[in-house]
Design goal:
The protein has helices at 7-11, 35-45, 50-53, 55-60, 70-82, 85-88, and strands at 25-27, 31-32, 94-104, 113-125, 132-142, 148-159. By secondary structure, it is an alpha+beta fold. The chain has a single domain, classed as Hotdog Thioesterase (Thiol Ester Dehydrase, Chain A). The longest helix is centred in the middle third of the chain and has 13 residues, at 70-82.
Length: 165
């Protein structure tokens, strides 16, 4: 018989800069983009571009329909990443987002279901801030057909487990 699962033991764990290895990868839960998401994002951002909010205009656009805002897709990717158990284990060790690079590969439409593939990239110890380092986290957003809609790299400043990491 297996020993009982100790939830407190797992909730007390934390991943630091030195625990992450380039090439490690995880997948997020999925989320479907809705019309409400697009309408709320337009209101929040003030971006009422006709491609996102005008069905008649969008029907005549090369996409043939309304598309979600690129920054909405990026925000959804951020939210999906925070739902990943491995990312939650970094809570308290992540100090700041220092850089973000992003390429939008394909449009996202209402009804598309997205997920994020997170992969650890290059790691660099900080010379300015002892006990910290920068971690490049590649986030690839894919739709329900497995097509890449966003390629991005989020560089995060993280605490080291030890000063000598």
């Amino acid at each position: 018989m297996n020993p009982p699962f100790d939830l407190d033991e797992h909730l007390g764990r934390r991943l630091y800069f030195d625990d992450l290895q380039p090439g490690q990868a995880w997948e997020s839960p999925r989320r479907t983009v809705t019309e409400a998401d697009v309408v709320q994002f337009a209101g929040l951002s003030g971006d009422y571009n006709a491609l996102h909010t005008d069905a008649v205009f969008a029907a005549e656009h090369p996409f043939g329909q309304r598309a979600a805002h690129g920054l909405l897709t990026l925000a959804i990717a951020s939210g999906l990443t925070t739902r990943m158990p491995v990312y939650r284990l970094m809570d308290g060790a992540r100090l700041a987002l220092t850089e973000l690079r992003c390429q939008w590969r394909q449009p996202v439409f209402m009804g598309d279901t997205l997920h994020v593939e997170l992969r650890i990239g290059e790691k660099t110890l900080s010379k300015k801030r002892p006990g910290t380092g920068r971690v490049a986290m590649h986030r690839t957003v894919k739709n329900q057909r497995g097509e890449v809609v966003v390629d991005s790299e989020w560089t995060t400043l993280m605490k080291c487990r030890t000063e000598a990491a």
